[in-house]
Amino acid sequence: MEKYNHKYGAEQIQVLEGLEAVRKRPGMYIGSTSVRGLHHCVYEIVDNCVDEALAGYCTEINVIIEKGNIISVEDNGRGIPVEIHPKTKISTAETVYTVLHAGGKFGGDSGYKVSGGLHGVGSSVVNALSTWTEVTIQRDGGIFQMKFEKGKTVQPLEKIGDSKKTGTKVRFLADDTIFETLEYEYEVLEKRFREMAFLTKGLKITIEDQREETPKKAEFCYEGGLISFVEYLNKNKEKLHKSPIYIEKNGEVPVEIAIQYTTAYSESIYTFVNNINTIEGGTHLEGFKRSLTKVFNDYARSHNILKEKDQNLQGEDIREGITAVVSVKVKEPQFEGQTKTKLGNSEVAGIVQSMVNDALSAFLEENPTVAKAILEKCISASRAREAARKARELVRRKNALETSTLPGKLADCSSKIPEECEVYIVEGDSAGGSAKQGRDRKFQAILPLWGKMLNVEKSRADKIYNNDKLNPVIVAVGAGIGNDFDITKIRYGKIIIMADADVDGAHIRTLLLTFFFRYMRPLIENGNVYLAQPPLYKLSKKGMQDIYCYTDEGLEEKFNELEKQGIPRDSVNIQRYKGLGEMNPEQLWETTMDPARRTLIQVQLEDAIKADEIFTVLMGDDVEPRREFIEQNAKYVKNLDI
Q: Is the pLDDT confidence value at 118 over 60?
């Protein structure tokens, strides 16, 4: 092996001092330098304020997105200590903002009983990744201020006035040489702060966006806490019992849970640790699920609802239609990484399970009517699960008897490497025919669908397996559905929905996305689902190469370009594509299927709560929320077929 001729001694070993390591490898501390990492900086500062609220000293937090994407976060907590720190010999406040792992969240005698900012890097990391930071503290009868640039102190802490108030205000401008964008998404921040307010009873959080001429502002304060949270999540769903079941216990690990069952067929369980959304669950979720299964089976047995000959209800039967929020407070939580998405403390599972066992058992005994309504739904879900199992086995047996186990209409690709394969789910046989002729057979498969598709929001899995429109999709993807779904078995790395650019096409896309979200959610979470973007218009003229436009704005831009070239718009033929079938195979390949020229939109799941709400509104049984949604959003419709 060739040896590289370079020095390798002490002088080649780089030591990053202070906050240089953060600027060198920002992703290690905030996850990424994308817009998600940008928002994470705001969360880190607000989390510090919420920690003050959890400690009982803060009742109000105000967040402002100022013009120029400057963030301002102010609370009425105790204010960061301002005295000289015994170890660093500088003010404690400056230490918090310039030294990694400096904070009031370590050790048994720390300033906080529990904290979301486990790693203690929040303030210093945000400071390191900002062009400038300004911190104003009211405490001990005075107003104190310090300023930083890229993590370095440019104005040490100094007293600038007197005040009888207490609290901390942080203003910062994220560094545009580190982040890909400085444009904050108001809706993303608003959703996060609503969550925080739900999880901290009585805490008022306001967010204001001052970047536009007409500022946006929202205020959140919920005295009901998790009960209000569950009621908010279920506002568009039909409930099996009027009020959520509420469980709370303040012990070594405080646990707070709210539960309400609906007539829906999906489960919605959200978990939090120290107000951090643990989107991947963890031991607290495991304990909760085990307890639910045990308590309901025990109750059903003791009250003769389940007979001796009956099998126990499975966890998925008992969780059908449940909406629950599980919140725990852990002194020393073990998370997976700085972004804190999964709890690993093994002792928490037993604590949650024991607490829910006692509290839920007592509730069911005291509320037999509610218990009966929930168990009737669980038993119905169990029967449907068994029917789905039989339907699934029937499908498998049927496929095994055929020469090919794949759907008859599927034109498969020759490659068997999922990472390089893609399947187009195409609306109609006509478009399917063009797609089959125009595709690259090596890696592109085509699955045409036809007729009215099943709305899975109103159906259980047993109906899906028997549906001749969705069953081909299940078999083609090859990974099962629901609890049986295994993403390692998918046959295609890209599942691309290709529907007409009209209202019917939008409806088919929505039906398929509903199916993927409810029964194959890992596909979306893993980034495997895409939407094809066929052109809306074709511009043609003798002697001119055809031009395709994908939006109304793009059409206007092309017309302006042609007019600059001396080609009047009235001399150009314009064709509005209503369906994919209007394009011949070459045009379909050139505009929609060629990886070098096509436009694909990746379907991403940024907010599971909002997604659940939208699917419930658009695809559920309740008409009134859908009417309200249409009335509020009709003004945004650009293309409406009449």
A: no
Task: Give CA–CA dist 517/606, Å, rounded.
Answer: 13
Which among 405, 521, 384, 379 is positioned nearest to 466, based on CA atoms? 384
Active-site hit among 175, 427, 457, 590 = 427
Phi, psi values for residue 296, rounded to 5° = -70, -35
**Which among 256, 500, 612, 613 is annotated as catalytic?**
500
495: Cβ contacts below 8 Å, ≥ 6 apart: 422, 423, 425, 477, 516, 523, 528, 529, 530
24 pLDDT tier (thresholds 50, 70, 90) = confident
Is 622 annotated as catalytic?
no
* Sign of torsion over alpha carbons 319, 325, 327, 333: positive
Confidence of residue 8 (pLDDT cuts 50, 70, 90): very low
Helix (H, G, I), strand (E, B) or coil at 45: helix
Instruction: Please provide the DSSP assignment of 243-281 as one string.
Output: S-EEEEE-SSS-EEEEEEEBS-SS-EEEEEETTEE-TT-
The verdict on whether 502 is a catalytic residue reads yes
The reply to whether 546 belongs to the active site is no
The sign of the torsion formed by the CA atoms of 556, 557, 558, 559 equals positive
| CB burial string 460-485: b at 16+ within 10 A, e below | bbbbbbbbebbbbbbbbbebbbbeeb
Neighbours of 390 (CB within 10 A): 12
How many C-alpha atoms does 11 have within 13 Å on its Cβ side? 2
Burial of 11 (0-12, 13-18, 19+ CB in 10 A): exposed
Q: Where residue 414 falls among pLDDT bands split at 50, 70, 90?
A: very high
Contact 428, 582 (CB under 8 A): no
Sign, CA torsion 121/126/127/128 = positive
Reference 262, options 245, 231, 241; nearest CA is: 241
Q: What residues does 130 pair with on adjacent strands?
A: 174
- Contact present, 284 and 273 (Cβ < 8 Å): yes
Q: What is the pTM of this model?
A: 0.73
Please pick, among 20, 286, 386, 502, the residue that the annotation labels catalytic: 502
Q: Which two tokens stand for residue 563?
A: 């007019």
Pairing of strands 529-532, 494-498: parallel
**Residue 153: Cβ within 10 Å count:** 17
Q: Which of 358, 504, 525, 582 is catalytic?
A: 504
pLDDT band at 506 (very low <50, low <70, confident <90, very high): confident
Tokens of 213: 């001429």
CA distance 164 to 180: 41
Cα 343 to the center of its chain, rounded Å: 17
pLDDT tens-place string over residues 137-171:
999 999 999 999 999 999 999 999 999 999 999 99
Q: How do 70-75 and 60-66 pair as beta strands?
A: antiparallel
Closest by CA position to 498, among listed 423, 419, 412, 420: 423
Q: Domains in the chain, start-ordered, CATH in brackets?
A: 20-220 (3.30.565.10), 226-385 (3.30.230.10), 405-534+602-636 (3.40.50.670)
* pLDDT for 460 beyond 90: no
Q: How many CA atoms lie within 13 A of 318 on its CB side?
A: 19
Residue type, 455: N
